[in-house]
Amino acid sequence: MKTFIALAAATATVLGTAAYAQDFKMPVQARQGQFAVLAINLGILGGMARGATEYDAEAAQAAADSIVAVTMINQGPLWPEGSDSMSIDGTRAEPAIWENLPDVLSKFGDLTMAAQELQAVAGTGQEAIGPALGKLGGTCKACHDNYRTPE
Ligand code: HEC
To answer: Does the pLDDT value for residue 98 go beyond 90?
Structure first.
């Protein structure tokens, strides 16, 4: 009987852990995916700013529009409590995020503003991209320095 209870408890723990990790799978994938979309479009614009790829007003505008679109995603559901890098595998979200939500939101607001400034100029010419992109990149770094676990 004792063995049975111990076994049942162990099974419950294993199942409980699996369900727990499963609950966070989609929000973690979603937030990492949105950052990947940011990085891809930053790369497209960065190539044009450096002159590594030819400036194309339409492509530049599409990239900037995509960055702005990401900033319009409601972030709340992507950051459930307990989905930090100390609690689960597969994420680099620092626990400090959940202790400093107003600051994190304000950093996301800085990203949003810089993205809109980039969107306003991306289609106007190659020279306009560099400065706007530099400003946007600064807002990525400001958040990563505080809230993303180093690799
Ligand atoms: C408000 C905070 C914040 C801002 C602003 C921000 N990031 Fe992040 N970023 C994070 C956090 C936190 C993670 C870790 C997410 C995770 O692993 O769950 C992350 C992860 C990433 C990743 C890795 C995604 C993956 O596949 O694991 C990339 C790439 C990235 N960010 C790019 C960017 C770029 C580019 C910008 C700016 C255009 C940006 N981020 C702006 C907080 C931010």
So the answer is: yes
- Longest distance between any two alpha carbons in the chain, whole Å: 77
Alpha carbon distance 21, 89 (integer Å): 8
Q: What is the tens place of the pLDDT at every residue in 26-72?
A: 999 999 999 999 999 999 999 999 999 999 999 999 999 999 999 99
Of 99, 117, 144, the one to substitute when testing ligand 1's pocket (max ligand atoms within 8 A of C-beta) is 144
Residue nearest (by alpha carbon) to ligand 1 atom 26? 32
| pLDDT for the residue 4 | 54
Please return the burial class of 58, using the count of CB atoms within 10 Å of its CB with bins 0-12, 13-18 and 19+. exposed
Q: State mean pLDDT over 130-139.
A: 98
Rg from Cα positions in the chain: 20
Nearest CA to ligand 1 atom 36: 140
Whether residue 70 contacts residue 124, with contact meaning beta carbons closer than 8 Å, is answered with no
Q: Is 45 in the pocket of ligand 1 (CB under 6 A)?
A: no
Q: Which residues contact 60 (CB under 8 A, 6 or more apart)?
A: 44, 45, 48, 122, 123, 129
